[in-house]
Specification:
It contains four helices and no strands. The chain has 90 residues and is mostly helical. α1 packs across α3 and α1 crosses α4. The chain starts with 24 loop residues before the first helix and ends with a helix.
Length: 90
């Protein structure tokens, strides 16, 4: 028997057209909070983690367990990116 090094793990395919690729959930929540504020987030996505004593940590805990809420956050993040691009091009 010969000891051969293990083959490297396959790399995930590059996703150059996916704006969410490489963005963590925490980065999304922080960016949305800075852009809309907690009240604005709560108005757009009415969940308790944004409405009652909001924090990034409590939001992440909830969003990691709740796929439908995470999808809404991702959608709002994409909307925010489009708005920022629109405003920058003016």
């Amino acid at each position: 028997m010969t000891d051969q090094p293990a083959a490297p793990a396959p790399q995930p395919p590059a996703q150059p057209r996916n704006p969410l690729h490489g963005i963590t959930l925490e980065a999304m929540v922080v960016a949305l909070q800075q852009y809309f504020g907690w009240e604005g987030l709560a108005n757009r996505i009415p969940v308790r983690c944004f409405q009652s004593d909001p924090s990034v940590a409590s939001s992440l805990k909830f969003l990691r367990k709740t796929p439908w809420a995470r999808e809404k956050v991702e959608g709002l993040y994409l909307f925010m990116l489009r708005e920022q691009r629109r405003n920058a091009s003016r």
